[in-house]
Specification:
The complex is a heterodimer of chains A (about 80) and B (about 220). With about 80 residues, chain A is an alpha+beta fold. Helix content of chain A is about 25%, strand content about 30%. Chain B is α/β, with parallel strands linked by helices and about 220 residues long. In chain B, the strands form 2 sheets. A 9-stranded mixed sheet of chain B has the order 2-1-3-4-11-10-9-6-7, with helices on both faces. Chain B has a two-stranded antiparallel sheet with strand order 5-8. Classes of the chains: A alpha+beta (about 80), B alpha/beta (about 220). At the A-B interface, helix 1 of A face loops of B.
């Protein structure tokens, strides 16, 4: 299975990267953009998709500060 | 007493840590691939950028063979000190509560700060009274301590907060000005400031030495 894992800062946790991006946008003429959050995306191929959730909570994401979503990108 | 300082690829403060430890005993390096800690009496997980800080600071270092042994050593009550990146590693390993996030202002900070010792019981605090102020440098980009409210309440009630930044000196946006925390047993301490860089009058403060001397004293 080819999968894509999206990792983002948990709701309510200050994301200074997102804030910095948000503050830069008006200077470039992009108005009306709010609530920017910056996360990470990991693509991988797994022989056993059953392992993915544990792998995400143990290594790819820190569940104390991050949420993650796993999506299949090869239709399986 | 014998100190062991863990060395990962990307560590950069292990030599200063060895020097600080050698002022309070003997010290040796422990390579990250070594499972055998070599009979040390206390362990330092030093600062730096272990494994390039890939993924998240400390996330990969926690799976190294040496860290598995450090976790067993800590579980048996052995004193473990995590400094800066070492603090991040110990949090990622679940040996300490909470996590370290990107500094609030996104800037790397490098300056001397005052720390106030909290009411807590630990061999690292054996030579330090609650309420005392220590002058110790910080240098980090990801040092904003965070823990969800239920964990904050618990560590507050258990006396697991070891150090707070002095009022107005929080360099990174840490919740509750928290600079260092202990595990429940008090034998594992993690802090963002660098006591190993404050052991010689030449660099302005020797307050950091008191943490190392405290352990030497407590183990006698």
């Amino acid at each position: 299975m080819k999968a894509r894992v999206l990792i983002r800062p948990k709701e309510g946790i200050l994301d200074p990267q997102g804030k910095a991006v948000e503050r830069a946008l008006p200077a470039l003429g992009f108005d009306g953009i709010e609530h920017v959050r910056v996360g990470r995306m990991v693509e991988l191929e797994a022989e056993d998709p059953e392992l993915l959730s544990e792998l995400c909570s143990k290594l790819l994401a820190n569940p104390l500060i991050e949420d993650f979503e796993i999506e299949s990108i090869d239709g399986t | 007493m014998l100190w062991g300082v863990v060395q990962f690829p990307g560590s950069c403060d292990e030599r200063d840590a060895v020097r600080a430890c050698s002022l309070a005993g003997d010290a040796r390096l422990i390579w990250h691939e070594d499972r055998d800690l070599g009979g040390v009496d206390a362990v330092v997980v030093p600062g730096g950028f272990s494994y390039g800080d890939y993924l998240r600071a400390g996330a990969i270092a926690r799976f190294s063979p040496a860290m598995e042994s450090v976790a067993e050593f800590a579980a048996a009550g052995g004193p473990v000190l995590g400094i800066c990146n070492g603090f991040q590693v110990l949090c990622e390993a679940g040996l300490l509560p909470g996590a370290l996030l990107r500094n609030e202002e996104l800037r790397f900070v490098c300056r001397q700060v005052d720390l106030v010792a909290a009411e807590a019981s630990s061999p690292f605090l054996a030579e330090i009274e609650a309420g005392e102020t220590l002058s110790i440098p910080v240098k980090h980009g990801e040092g904003r301590y965070y823990a969800p409210p239920e964990i904050l309440d618990r560590i507050g009630a258990n006396g697991q907060v070891a150090f707070r930044y002095a009022p107005g000196q929080n360099p990174n946006g840490s919740v509750g000005d928290i600079a260092g925390v202990l595990n429940e047993g008090g034998n594992v301490l993690g802090l963002m400031p660098h006591p190993e860089h404050a052991v010689d009058p030449l660099t302005g403060s020797t307050d950091g030495l008191r943490l190392f001397a405290g352990v030497a004293e407590a183990l006698v």
